[in-house]
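ok so i was messing around last nite and threw this chain in just to see what happens. nothing serious, just curious
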Amino acid sequence: MAESINVVLCWHMHQPYYREGLKGAYRLPWVYLHGIKDYSDMAAHLERYPRMRAVVNFAPVLLEQLDDYARQLDALLQYGKPTHDPLLNLLAGIEPIPADAARRLRIVQDCRRCHAPRMIHPYPAFHSLLRMVGVTDETGANNAEQQLHLTYLSEQYFLDLLTWYHLAWLGHSLKQLPLAQRLMAQEKNFSVTDRHALLNLMQGCMAGLIPRYRALAERGQIELSMSPYGHPIVPLLNDFANLRDALPDAPVPQAPAYPGGAERARWHLQRGVAVFEHYFGRRPAGVWLSEGGVSEDALAQLDEMGFAWTASGEGVWRNSCVKSGLPESDMHTKRALFSPAQIDGFATRVFFRDDGLSDLIGFKYGDWHADDAVGDFVQHLENIAHFFGEDASRHVVSVILDGENAWEYYPDNGHHFLDALYSTLSSHPRLNVDTFSGQVTQAAVTSLKRLAAGSWVYGSFSTWIGSEDKNRGWDLLAMAKHDYDRVAKGGGLSAMQLQQATQQLAVCEGSDWFWWFGDYNPASSVSDFEQLYRDQVRELYRLIGVAPPIQLDVPLSHGRGNAENAGTMRRNT
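result:
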């Protein structure tokens, strides 16, 4: 009979920086919407199953935004101070419902931005509000007659629409509370008292998120890890040539390198640790480098900082095996995939994601009955354990995916699936749920001579660099960094000005801007991100007192792809 095999579930919690500059308005609401839905529910599932173990990875820039939203909501409710998020101000009545059709249309468009089959259709009152203005899954209010109709609707219509949008975004655990149940049963005519009660519920949730995860870590149930501060692609900051490891013929940006990139990578790692320690009171043992982007120069930086582990995707594992001359038999059976890798000359161990199992959760099981999905998942794990036989306990299956974006595609925000999954995994006699830190010294090690540079997506960096749109984005960033360096070295900025400019630079270096550049992405998402990216770079120029180049006036990308965007962990639109 096979021994138990070790299983690590790693949930990566990540949203990019959505504010206009350091103090401006939030252009997109995904931080607080995922806060009241996914981050809350994911904590609740772990709290309900104390024998469950997992790794929860946070991007530090997300932690700061979660904290900021909690504080802004508190100031709104306590003192009537407007937040920096327009949707919240409209919901609260801090800002009046606009009279003109264009701004009313924007409210309608904002309130349909979710996966309709799971988040609109189950609520007839919500669905009816959208159908009332001719908005369906396929069309928006995009003709003159529909937009004129918006001007005749009462303010209460829009207040009800905003209320339902936020009710739909509540996680399953929050929807069970009496207040949420009452409001959903009420269906319409939500008063300012109703809406402020909902905002109070949301504020309490947001304020409690970081303490809940900290408490889970302090009692040893989860391991908390981090990504570099602004979620940059560290290997690309270090050297654009890292692109060529997996794609030797791919075009690179005109800039020969990102100026001072290795130092910027260290800054993101060091700043990430500082933010992590501020919120969680401890130093992380491991790092999920942004997008699972690894390289040997990045691994050397992790070694410098004493990190015990990092992780990447199966494509990187396969490329590394080839470069290391690992026997094809081991690659064919994926034997070496289920062991942390010891790369020659480096101390930090590298775990590799089982892409098949991870993607089943991320993309497939949402359409399955929860019991069937969990049964299928566990069967795969049992098959792996059977393959290793008596040696199973020395191996680990790594399942890594976004902790927020998949659940929108599941019934009831994934409640039934995760409930069954945690119940089964935490009590299964042959599956030992653990953390990466728990396995880094326990699991059998695979020795590899080389670590191939690449990411969790296809084992390459093609999602972020190597195409015309993406390379233009890098060239603009490299140009801005060159100007930043020149001004910073010239001593023309005060200490405070330099600190603000450095922080803004970190925002511009995030991975998500480059993720969305490309015609294969949906036009609305490309527009959101590429406009905000150019605005962030303009703000950097403002902070260093340099006129921005005219290239920033030209859109980098337009997009026309399918909004479902297969091949991603699930990046919200």
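not much to say yet. Residues 486 and 492 are 10 Å apart (CA to CA).
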